[in-house]
Amino acid sequence: MPKMKTDMETNRQLEADDLKYIWHPFTQMQEYGRETPLVIASGEGCLLRDTYGNEYIDGVSSLWTNVHGHRKQELDAAVMEQLGMIAHSTLLGLSSIPAIGCAKKLIEIAPKGLTRVFYSDDGSTSVEIAVKMAFQYHQQAARGDSRKTKFITLKNAYHGDTIGSVSVGGIDLFHAAYKPLLFPTIQVESPHCYRCPFGKDRQSCDYECFRNLEETVIRHAPETAAFIIEPLVQGAAGILLQPPGYLKRVRDLCTEHKIFMIADEVAVGFGKTGKMFACDQEGITPDIMAVAKGIAGGYLPLAATLATEEVYEGFLGKFEEFKTFFHGHTFTGNPLACAVALASMELFEKEDILNSLQEKIARFTRALEPFAYLPHVGEVRQRGIMVGIELVADRETKASYAPRERIGHRVIKEARRHGVIIRPLGDVIVLMPPLAITADQLDRLCAVTFQSIRMVTEGQNQS
Question: Per the CATH hierarchy, to which homologous superfamily does domain 38-71+353-458 belong?
Fold first, then answer.
């Protein structure tokens, strides 16, 4: 009889196969290959479990997607029930029960005035669709203007990894290599209070960041189809927060100058800022809104681009006019994903999640207060359960660490040793747990992160 592999041998084989076959996203594989891969085998609630049985707090909600925790009974049941019906059928010329139910619920909870749902598979694509919608509208709609072919974008923006979404992005580290492939945009400075591009501080600031945008909009309005923004928080840039009122001013500016406002809610939507959508925080409705990540509770790939009736009507016409929105995907409106998304949205109401979240946000704020006293923490940025802790080599000058020091990476590796999984954005440590995280888990997440930063930046032993 052949010899049965032990659990240890199986685990070692998995690690070897990972290194041999998988090319990981946003990962320098030469560096990755020098470390033993962490292979996740299972999860429950806000905990992940590796192949050796070690447990970890999921401190970044499995890349900002998980809402209710892993193996949530109601979400598991929604997937299983739909599997008993059908796993997938096309949305091209047909429909499905879950796609209809999910779209109806999305419109019910979305900012008032958004009326139509166009499904896709991920955040990048939902933004790509938004860009194409705005452009095509102006080329064919009765109320469109064919001169409007440009997009105003923000520096430090991240809207995804497809060519269109990269074109409207603004992080050179991610995007510079692809510039020859991209369409040009009109880029303006984004709010960045810690490293203000206008040389101001919070005491002397007079919204120069908005005035810079306003001047650009006035100058380029006749040629601009849309302005795209991550509302309230630029996530991948390091959890950069927009000052209060900035988003409302943007909405008013776009309305005044007849420019579509595209809100990229992929990262900030579904409760992460404390309300269902970030736009709700300032009571505004964009013309087009992209959602993904938390839409399906972190279970399955799903995204949607929501539009107003005005945008939708710009695509109506006789067949021979060819005003159709020529975009779609094989798995658009996948029934499994839509079924679990609907169940997830219903849980927000059933469990009164947004109201109960406020106490967790306040607890999070209190737990983060000691970080301000660490000598190499430049700033702690928080909006809802989205947190960025910027590490600096020198607090007085705000000097960054040299990339070769890999401070952020070393901090998250130290945290992993103590049962917490987090990810850095450069030297910004990001905490973004599932909304379902318990009080004790939240306290532990902050305590481990604090000690890990202290250990790496000051050489202090863990207590």
Answer: Aspartate Aminotransferase, domain 1 (3.90.1150.10)
